[in-house]
Design a protein that fits this description.
This protein has 119 residues and is an all-alpha fold. It has six helices and no strands.
């Protein structure tokens, strides 16, 4: 799984080009549901719209429901090391970075399942 993306939008476009975008959206929905956080974008949502919606949801969680935010990171299985190396100056940058880390982990799950599992 070569790293072919530098940001959230590139990652989503890569998923779309490999016909795994809908599976990525479903994986996001699944993990948000497991974390008991409402996030239900339509399966045909455009990559840019998904990125914006996810970033906004993370921003709200950071400000208003921090415990739920931490629970989401645990359920998604974002490595703690990734957050400690994040260089963010304000809450908006933290939300952007967290969005990218969550999408990277969800993409990894989808890609691995597609490559080695559900065939």
């Amino acid at each position: 799984m070569a790293k072919e993306y530098q940001n959230s939008l590139e990652l989503l476009q890569l998923a779309e080009s490999r016909a795994l975008y809908q599976k990525l959206v479903l994986q996001l929905k699944k993990d948000f549901t497991l974390a008991n956080i409402e996030f239900d974008p339509p399966e045909d949502i455009a990559p840019l719209d998904l990125k914006v919606a996810l970033k906004e949801k993370i921003y709200i969680l950071l400000l208003e429901r921090f415990a739920d935010y931490l629970n989401l990171l645990y359920i998604v299985d974002v490595p703690e090391k990734a957050f400690s190396s994040m260089d963010a100056q304000d809450i908006v940058e933290v939300a952007e970075g967290a969005c990218f880390l969550i999408l990277k982990r969800e993409w990894q799950k989808v890609w691995l399942r597609h490559s080695y599992g559900d065939k």
